[in-house]
Inverse folding.
């Protein structure tokens, strides 16, 4: 059977169905009339179509005889019942959607709130831990020049139940024209300074690492803030600043000592043991060269068996610290609490501190 | 009754006239069952499909847009349900002609005649032979032949129902007839018709 035969067969079928355009139908009919074989094929198709039509009509008659015109499912009563059921189902679906939506919204809100709380709690904890566990912590004072670095272990000792004020200098809250209470912490085993400040939002600590300033803020909760503030208060109330084997002085005097040390040092003389308030102390006399108003001329300090140093007596007139009003280009001083020969002087412009960089250090006499 | 009447009845039903859809259903129910019975080859299955199809129309009655022919629209929906039902029931049987691979040259065995054609038994035999011949075709062949030879739909309308091209419809009808003719050869030669 050639492709042409197939095409012609299709045309014959279309002719049977009256689906050929008139011109093509005429052409096909002429060929059918001329060719007995084609006529036979055409007649077979017509007969088949008629047979099928008769069979399908018999089908329809059979259906008409056995099938109702429309089942009860399409009666008005059944359709109204279906409508009611559909409305109920739609209502249920809507209510279900609302319930699901509200539940999802609640879950999302819960997750969002939980997520927003969690990092804050973690940041407080991690920041506080970072401060306490740091090798060195710079604790901010009201006056940047008075900042100090302290070893983390010392900071832990200060906060702990057995904490001592060894190496801690107190800083009056009105010192330096700044807001809340501040404190200076001195690391006995290290020459660097520490800055510490209790703010409204917790402790602010700066620490130095390898010469680069790293600012860290330890935000603490209310109870921790109070504890921190209590520590600062204790430091503020301290009469003495202590050092390992060297003289100790009240904070205000200490500042002057340092200033004088920067200008040439000071002298200490061993006075021998003395009973002070029922405790035997090894006492030293500390003399100052400055005689201007507000600067103590001399003091007697005592060292107890633990190495802590107390101020025994001094000639204070009134303490006033010039550093608090220092100009931007003024020098700042870093120091140690040991013998005058151990005093280290650090000079740096204020702006260096403002930028958070470490002060330039130089030894006295360099 | 025109297609406009059908869509009007559906519109009334959408506005709450419960009688209108009953009228529409009764107008199309039996012809639709006959159509689906040919496509499915199963009477009860056909009734089930038609009821499901009409209920689907009823549920969507307020969202349906009037088209050229409600019957074409309904038969297309029913045909899809039939095809789904056929696919659900079983794969295409070995003897059934698939629309995609049937050719004019496929061998077809004619039915043997063993009875006197004048007798009732012979007429029943002829009906069974035609049913068997049609049943050997694929569902779309069957649908195309039914829509053409009984419903007398044009090729264009049939193409709409079957969602096929005009060429496909033309080929399906022609091949369907040729295969039925091949199987019904002895009966056709005698000019016998089912009663």
């Amino acid at each position: 059977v050639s492709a042409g035969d197939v095409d012609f067969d299709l045309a014959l079928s279309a002719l049977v169905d009256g689906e050929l355009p008139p011109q093509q139908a005429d052409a096909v009919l002429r060929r059918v009339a001329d060719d007995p074989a084609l006529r036979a094929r055409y007649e077979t198709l017509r007969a088949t179509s008629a047979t099928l039509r008769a069979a399908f009509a018999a089908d329809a008659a059979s259906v008409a005889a056995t099938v109702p015109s429309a089942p009860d499912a399409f009666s008005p009563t059944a359709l109204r019942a279906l409508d009611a059921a559909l409305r109920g189902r739609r209502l249920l679906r809507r209510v279900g959607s609302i319930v699901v939506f509200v539940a999802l919204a609640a879950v999302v809100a819960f997750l969002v709130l939980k997520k927003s709380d969690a990092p804050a709690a973690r940041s407080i904890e991690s920041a506080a831990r970072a401060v306490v566990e740091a090798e060195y912590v710079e604790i901010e004072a009201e006056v940047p020049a008075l900042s100090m670095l302290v070893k983390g272990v010392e900071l832990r000792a200060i906060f702990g139940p057995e904490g001592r004020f060894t190496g801690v200098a107190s800083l009056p809250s009105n010192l330096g024209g700044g807001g809340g209470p501040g404190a200076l912490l001195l690391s006995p085993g290290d020459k660097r300074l520490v800055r510490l400040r209790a703010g409204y939002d917790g402790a602010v600590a700066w620490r130095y690492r390898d010469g680069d300033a790293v600012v860290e803020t330890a935000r603490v909760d209310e109870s921790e803030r109070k504890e921190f503030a209590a520590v600062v208060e204790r430091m503020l109330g301290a009469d003495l600043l202590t050092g390992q084997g060297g003289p100790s002085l009240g904070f205000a005097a200490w500042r002057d000592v340092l200033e004088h040390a920067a200008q040439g040092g000071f002298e200490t003389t061993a006075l021998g043991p003395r009973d002070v308030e029922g405790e035997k102390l090894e006492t030293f006399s500390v003399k100052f060269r400055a005689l201007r108003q507000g600067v103590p001329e001399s003091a007697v300090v005592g060292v107890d068996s633990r190495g802590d140093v107390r101020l025994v007596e001094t000639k204070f007139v009134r303490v006033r610290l010039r550093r608090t009003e220092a100009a931007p280009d003024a020098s700042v001083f870093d120091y140690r609490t040991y013998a005058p020969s151990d005093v280290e002087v650090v000079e740096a412009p204020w702006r260096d501190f403002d930028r958070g960089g470490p002060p330039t250090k130089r030894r006295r006499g360099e | 009754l025109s297609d406009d009447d059908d869509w009007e009845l559906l519109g009334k039903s959408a506005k709450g006239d419960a009688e209108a859809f009953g009228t529409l259903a009764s107008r199309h129910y039996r012809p639709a069952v006959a159509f689906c019975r040919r496509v499915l080859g199963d009477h009860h299955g056909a009734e089930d499909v038609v009821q499901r199809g009409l209920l689907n129309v009823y549920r969507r009655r307020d969202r349906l847009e009037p088209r050229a022919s409600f019957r074409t629209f309904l038969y297309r929906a029913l045909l899809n349900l039939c095809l789904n039902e056929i696919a659900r029931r079983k794969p295409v049987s070995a003897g059934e002609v698939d629309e995609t691979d049937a050719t004019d040259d496929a061998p077809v065995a004619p039915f043997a005649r063993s009875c006197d054609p004048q007798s009732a038994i012979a007429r029943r035999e002829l009906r069974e032979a035609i049913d068997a011949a049609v049943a050997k075709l694929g569902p779309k062949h069957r649908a195309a032949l039914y829509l053409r030879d009984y419903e007398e739909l044009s090729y264009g309308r049939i193409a709409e129902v079957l969602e096929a091209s005009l060429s496909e419809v033309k080929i399906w009808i022609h091949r369907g007839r040729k295969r039925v003719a091949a199987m019904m050869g002895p009966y056709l030669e005698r000019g016998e018709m089912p009663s």
Remarks:
- Residues 247 and 329 of chain A are 31 Å apart (CA to CA).
- The radius of gyration of chain A is 50 Å.
